[in-house]
Amino acid sequence: MAFTRTFKQLRPIVAALGRHKVATALIVLQVALTLAVTSNALFIVATRIVHLSRPTGTDEAHIFVIRNGWTIGQNATQIDANIRTDLDTLRRVPGVGDAFSSYGYPLAGDGSYISVRPKLKPDQKARGPFAMIYAADEHTINTLGISLVAGRNFRPDEITTFGPNDKISPPGIIITRSLADKLFPDGSALGMTVYFPGGPTRIMGIIASLQGPISMTRSSDGDSVLVPAHYVDPDGVWYLLRTDASDMKPVIAAALKALQARGGVRVLDPKNGVITMAQARERAYATDHSLAMLMSIVSGLLLLATAGGIVGLSSFWVSQRRKQIGIRRSLGATTGDILRYFHAENFLIVGGGIVLGVLLAVLANLGLMKIFYPLPHMPLYVPLLGALLLWLLGQLAVWGPARSAAKVSPVVAIRTE
Amino acid sequence: MWGYYVALALRSSARSKALTALVIVLLAFGVSACMVSYAVFRATTSDPLPAKSSRLYVPQVDNFGPSHIWQNEPPPTLSYTDAMALWKAHKTSRQTVLYPAAWQVDSDDGLTPAMSMNGDAVTADFFAMFDVPFRFGSGWTANDDVQHATVVVISRRLNDKLFGGQNSVGQAIRLDGHIFRIAGVLEDWNPKPRFFDLGTSDNTGFDDAGDIYIPFTRGIAMQKDSTTYNGCPTESGVYDTSRWDARLTSECAWIDAWVELATPADVDRYREYLRNYAGQQQRLGRFSWAPNIRLRNLTDWMAYLEVTPRTTSLSMLLSASFLLIVLVNVIGLMLARFMRRAPEIGIRRALGASRAAIYRQFLIEGATMGFVGGLVGVALTLLGLWGAGELFEPKIARLVHVDASLIALTVLLAVAATVVSALYPTWRAAQTQPAWQIKVN
Prior knowledge:
By secondary structure, chain A is of the alpha+beta class. Chain A has 11 helices and 13 strands.
C-alpha cells in the first residue's frame, strides 16, 4: 500500500527535480564521486588487510631471531664449528624450547633471502617456480612450530654446509605444500627428484606451510624450501629461537649472555640485532598497515561529508517548499505521504548518483591498477555494496529534513507572507 | 566597502548557523586532509641538494643487452669495467663511483667492542660534489685514490662513540682488521632521500646515511663486497662466480656513478662521449646491440627510481579527490545559502546596487567563509600531522614538519577553493530579478 502510494508520487518528484537541475546534478555528482572513491579505497583496505593478516605458518608468539655477525678472518670450517657450538649452547639456555641457524627468517623483508627455481628435468629450458631457501637442520620443524604432513624430518648426520657462493646441491629437501603442488599438481611430490643449479635433490618431506623471508608477492610468499645445511657466510648467520613461555625478555637476555661467553668470534647488536616475530610482522607490513588506516579514515570522512551535504541541501529544499507542502497537506496528504515524498526523492537522486558512480568506480580501479602495481581487479560486488551503503546513508541523512517537512501544518497554505 | 561586505557575510552567517557551520567544517576537513598528505608528499619528494641537483648526473650504459633488461632501460648501475672506463676517461671536472659496504669496526686501542657499521666506498670528489660538510679535517686527495690509500672519513656519530667527540684526524681505526688513518670527520649529514647510492642500494631512499667512507680503490683492493643486491645478465640474475677477479671482469652491475656537468653544452658533450663509448664496446664485440645509454640528472633520477613511496602518492590522490567532493558539496550548500537570500538581493538591486556589486558581495562572503574554514583547517592539519606518526612509516613520518609556508598554503587553498565553488552560486544570485523579489505576493 505504502509502496504503491510512493510509486504514484514518482512522476511529480521527477517533475519537481527538473526545476532544480543544478542542485540535483550536484548531489548526483557528489554521490557518484563518493561511491567511486570509497569503493576503491575500501577495496584497497580489504586487499591490504587480507595481505597483512596472512599467517607465516609458524608459532610467531614464541619465536625471536638473533643476528650474529662473525669477526673477520674465519673460514667456513671454523664458522660451521661455531654454529654447532652456539646451537648446543642456545638449546641449553633455560626457557629456550629449541633453536636452529639459517639465512633470513619469515617476514625479514627484501634483500635477505636466497632463491631457487627448481626444475623437473636437468635440461629443462623453462624456468621453475620461484621459491625461497631456508638453511635448516633437524631442529627447524620443532623450532618454527610447523607441521610435517608427509615424509620425514632431516637426520643430524645429513646436515652439511653451504656458503654465499656455493651452488646448492643437498641430498634431500623439505618443501611446503604450496610449492609441492606447483611442482607436481597431481600430488605426487613426495620422493620425487627436482633439479637445483647444483644438481638433483629428492623431496624427502612436505610441511603444511611456511612463509619465506619476503612478504610482498601475491603468489610466491608461501613457497619455501628447507635445505639441510648450516649457512657458512663469513658475514654472519641468523639464529632462530623458540621460547617455552610468551615472556621473551628474560630468554632473550639469557640467550645473548650465553652467546657473549664466546664473544671473541662474533659481533652482536643487542639493540637492532634481536627481533621478535611480532616486531618483524609490524615492520614487514608497516606500509600496508598505514595504507589501510589512511584509506579507512578518509573513506569515513568522505561518507560523513556526503551525508552532511545531503542533510544541508534537503533542509534547504524543505524550507523552500513549505508552501507547497502546506497545500498538499490541506488537500488531504498525510504526514506519511510527505515523509515518503522526501525519502523517495532522495532514493531517486542517490540512485542516479550510483549508476554514474559504479561506472566511475570501475574506471578508477582500472586506472589505479596501472599506477599501483600489485592491485587486483575490483569485483563488481564491491561498488554494489558501496551503492547499498550510500542508499542507506542517503535515507538516514534525509530522515531529519523529511520529518521537519512532515510537521509543516496545513494552515501554511492559506497564510500570506 | 570590503569591510562592509565582510560584516554582511558574518551577519548572514549568524542567521543560518547550521548551514554555515556545515560549510566551514567540510572545508576544514577537505583542506586539512590535503595538507597533511601534501606535507608528507613534500617531505618524500624534496630535493636533497637544491643548489646542485640540476648539475649532478647519473650515467647509465646498457651492458646487459635487450634480453636481460626491462622496457629497454639500461641497468641502474655500472659494471666494474664500465665504471672504471668512465672514471679513468675523466671527461668532466668532478666525478665519483661508489658502492655501499658494511664494516667491522674496532678502535685501535681495543677498548670499544667490535661493531658492524655501514658506509660507502667512494672516490675523492664525492665530498665536494655532494657538498658534504666536515667537522674536522677533510676528504682525501685524488692521489690517495690512485694509491689505494688506507684513509677513512667517519661520521660525527662514530667519532662521538669512538673518540668522545674530540678531533680525531690523524688517529687510526680498524676496519675489518686493517688500520685506516682518519682524514676527516663529517658534520651531521643525512640527506633525505639518501640519493647517492639509490641505484645499488635496497635502501628505499629513507634510510640513514652510513658512518664510514673509504676510497673506492681501497675497497676493491681489499675485495670488499657490496652490501646489496647486484644484478647480473644471467638466467638466475646473480653472480655466476665466486672469484673476485672474475667478478671484476663480469658484466654484473653493482656500482653507482655520478658526474657533475655545469652547462647544457657539457651535458651534450658527456652524452656524446657515453654514446661513443658504448659504440666502441659494440665494435670491440663486447656489446652485440646498438648503444643504449642514459644521462639523467638527480631530479629525474629520483623520479625514474620512484623514490616517493606509493603510500604517499596514493594518499595525495585520495585527499585530492576528497577535497573535490567537498567542493561539489560546498557548491550545493552555497547555492542554497545564496538563493535563500533572493529577497535581500532584490532589494539591494532595486536600491541601485549593480550586478558587479552583487558579485563582489557574494564572492567576499565566500572568501570570508573560506578564510574561517582555512583557520579551522590549520588546526586540523596540525592535529593530523601530530597523528602522522601513527599513519605513516616511522622513517617517513619523522621527516614531516610544519612551517609558515604550509600554514599559509592551507589558508590560501581554503580561500581559493571556496571562492571557486562560490562562482556559480554567485552568478545565480546576480541573475536575480529585482522586480520579482520585491513585489507583494
